[in-house]
Amino acid sequence: MRALNKNTVWGYLFASPWIVGFLLFGLYPILVSFWYSLCQYDVLRIPQYIGLRNYRELLFEDHYFYTAVWNTLFYTLVRTPLVIVGSLLLAMLVSKAVRGVRLFRTIYFIPSIISGVILSVLWMWLLNPEYGLVNSTLQFFGLQGPLWLIDPRWSKPAIILMSVWSLGGGRMLVFLAAIQNVPKHFYEAVEMDGGGWWARFRHVTLPFISPVLFLWFIFEIIGSLQVFVEAYVMTKGGPLNSTLFYNLYLYNKAFDDFDMGYASALAWLLFILAGIITLIQFRVSRKWVYYSGGVGK
Amino acid sequence: MARRRVVKYWFVAGVKDNIPLCVQLFNAAQESIRVVSTPIPWNEHEKKVLTAILSGDPPDVVNLVTPVPKWAARKALVALDPAITRDHFDTTRFFPSLWQEMSYRGRTYALPAYTGSYALFYNRRLLREAGLDPDRPPANWQEIQDYSRRLTRRENGRIVRMGFIPQYGTIETPLIIAFEQGARFIDPAGTRVQLTAPEVVSALQWERDFFDLYTVEEVSAFMGGFGYGNQQGFIAEKVALFINDNSFIDQIARYHPELDYGVAMIPAWGEGPSASSAGSWWLAIPRGAKNREDAWTFMKFVVSRETQLAESMSRDETLFPVNRFAANDSDFLGMHRYMAIFSRQMEQTRSKSIVPLVHDIFWREFSLARERSLRGVMSPEQALGQAERTIQAFLDRALEYDRYVDARMETTEF
Asked: Is A144 within 8 Å of chain B by CB?
């Protein structure tokens, strides 16, 4: 008993850098931001308690709030399925035992290690309407490319297009591992029943990797809701607010306007939105996610 | 030897500046105070200073460029009036618009340090080529349109050169036009935004008329090919008329020394006076700074005629002095044949600090209104009306908070 206690103490002691760090720099700011969301507060001066007014103004008076929500949802709903399916296809390709497959895996992975800011600057040139590689390529095939980041109709698709860059990143690797973990004898069973590649994929691969797909759907949706760097570096929210994403608006309010109370309220609303979406995903997941151990039922 | 008292000095810098010349000169000029300078990167510099003030241990002097009132309104700076009065410090040495920008609600919070003066650059070769007199640059905005029309060239339907582009450069063309017509943008009490005033509407209308011959998209695509250095639009001779600050002379000298160009006053609105907009780098003592007395001594040193001259002329890209005596000194004017125009233009500038409590919102909305009007989403009146309502809503909020704080928080005095 004594030994156990001692071990527990040591355990906590070893974990204490993380615990203290979390309490001080994680939990405390989160709690305090809730308090500030009920205030007018510009950091340099004392906070003024105003109750739920920030929330009320956001929801009922601030039209930029809805612009930002719409832009962000559009980005999330279009991008998430694209990157999940894209990475899955890529993972299936590189799961084949062909010569040089390791090399391909590496080549596909490399782009994803480039940082967001550098990537954004790079894509600004790729998407340049006059000199960019994207439109030059389109022109080669006789197509007139759009103005991408300059055109409010194309700016969001342009930023979504950037996501193809990271298709071969960590997400592909996890999918690859999941695919390789599917027990081989199930495939053999399908073959004996005369099933083709589609049946193998639909009835064996997909059910087995569905928990991994589900997890990444949640990751990607939460991540997409927080899209920021691309718009911050490339468009500053323009043209005509077409890339004013939620977190960019939050950033403008907090760090350009010093309106921390308002920005905190924005943060909490995003938290609630992400929570709702995740909850819906968990509900829907019962219909399509298969846990081989019977967990999650 | 007695130990020197230390003044901590933070300045926003590029990579090249190690110890600014004014600090070197100050440390060499006397023996009781030592200024220790720390460069802070441009990105996030406001946040860095903000957190330093909050920590309670800020530097003794900061050198910043975002409007003083934006900081002063938030009680981040020490009011300098007692020191100015005590030392009979002469404030008429500063260009009037720069000096005005140092105060908020009748109190002074900073000293201007360096600025840039804007004027019109014109390409003499291209003017000649278009059959225009190279010694007669456009003098008003109507002429800018006429000249631009004759200077613009298309090849296969695509723009390959433009006379003038209202969006190109850091200066906002419609803002200048509105300034020239005397627009105030806000009522004297500073509580009602007035963006729909006729002077502002006509400025946006001018910009929209300018685009009668071009679409926003084709001009944006054309500008997409511009870059820095020799890729800069004016330097690459893709734009013939361009408003920029005096340091542009140094850039032309570096990247295209043979360019045949001239500098003229910024075009006027009709027969009225020419105007420009300017802000300056400034020095201030943050709230909570420990060594205020020595900080003030250093600040006075930086804005003296001698230091201003030495520092201005030592740079690769000339800084414009805030001190009028330095700006009109024969040594300074002798640096370049066009320097006198920049000095004259500097006397006719207005400040961009219009609504300090919601400064960034104001300028975001102003840009958005321009964009909406140019792209034809709204008429200039509608676009400005919408911007006005948005700014007003946030200003009302900010004013309410301001009243709450004013009753509970003191301004720090020198």
From this structure: no
The answer to whether B5-117+278-350 and B118-277+354-397 have equal CATH topology is yes
Pairwise CB contact (< 8 Å): B360 & A252:
yes
| Residue range B27-55: mean pLDDT, rounded | 90
CA B174, B176, B180, B181 dihedral sign is positive
The residue of chain A nearest to residue B45, with distances taken between CA atoms, is: A255
Q: Is residue A87 part of a domain?
A: yes
Res A297 pLDDT > 50: no
**Would you say residue A223 lies in a domain?**
yes
Judge residue B179's burial from the number of C-beta atoms within 10 Å of its C-beta, 0-12 exposed, 13-18 middle, 19 or more buried: buried
Say yes or no: A145 contacts chain B, CB-CB below 8 A: no
Does position A296 have pLDDT exceeding 50, yes or no? no
In chain A, residues with a C-beta closer than 8 Å to the C-beta of B409 are 45-46
* CATH code assigned to B118-277+354-397: 3.40.190.10
Domain extent, residue A157, equals 61-288
- Distance of residue B47 Cα from the nearest chain A Cα, in angstroms: 7
pLDDT (0 to 100) of residue A2: 60
Q: What is the CATH number of the domain that holds A251?
A: 1.10.3720.10
Q: What is the rounded CA–CA span in Å between residue A12 and residue A19?
A: 8
Q: Which fold has domain B5-117+278-350?
A: D-Maltodextrin-Binding Protein; domain 2 (3.40.190)
Sheet of strand B5-13: strand arrangement: B33-41, B5-13, B61-64, B280-284, B111-115, B320-321
Residue A252 sits at the chain B interface (C-beta within 8 Å): yes
Strands (E), chain A: 39-40, 48-49
pLDDT band of B16, cuts 50, 70, 90: low
pLDDT band at B163 (very low <50, low <70, confident <90, very high): very high
Mean pLDDT of chain B: 92
Burial letters B374-407, b for 16+ CB under 10 A, else e: bbeebebbebbbbbbebbbbbbebbeebbebbee
Q: What is the mean pLDDT of residues B6-24?
A: 83
Residue A86 lies in a domain: yes
Q: Which of B47, B220, B287 sits opposite A147 (nearest CB)?
A: B220
Domain locations along chain B = 5-117+278-350, 118-277+354-397
* Whether A239 contacts chain B with CB within 8 A: yes
Number of domains in chain A: 1
Please check whether residue B42 touches A, CB under 8 A: no
A193 touches chain B (CB under 8 A): no
A3 pLDDT band, cuts 50/70/90, is low
Each residue's pLDDT tens digit, B172-194: 999 999 999 999 999 999 999 99
Please state the φ and ψ torsions of residue B4, each to the nearest 5 degrees.
Answer: -80, 145
Q: Is B218 on the interface with A (CB under 8 A)?
A: no
> What pTM was computed for the model?
0.89
pLDDT in tens, B382-413: 999 999 999 999 999 999 999 999 888 888 88
Q: Which residues of A48-67 are buried (b: 16+ CB within 10 A; e: fewer)?
A: bebeebbbebbeeebebbeb
Task: Answer whether residue A81 is part of any domain.
Answer: yes
Interchain pair B404, A238: CB under 8 A: no
Q: What is the CA radius of gyration of chain B?
A: 23
Extract the tokens encoding A209. Answer: 């990797």
Query: Does B217 contact A240 at a Cβ distance shorter than 8 Å?
Result: no
B3 interface with A at CB cutoff 8 Å: no
**Nearest residue on chain B to A50, alpha-carbon basis:** B401
Whether A233 and chain B come into contact, CB under 8 Å, resolves to no
In B, minimum Cα distance to A64 occurs at B390
Choose, out of B220, B355, B377, the residue to mutate when testing the contact with A (most A CBs < 10 Å): B220
Segment among B55-64, B258-267, B313-322, B375-384 with least mean pLDDT: B313-322
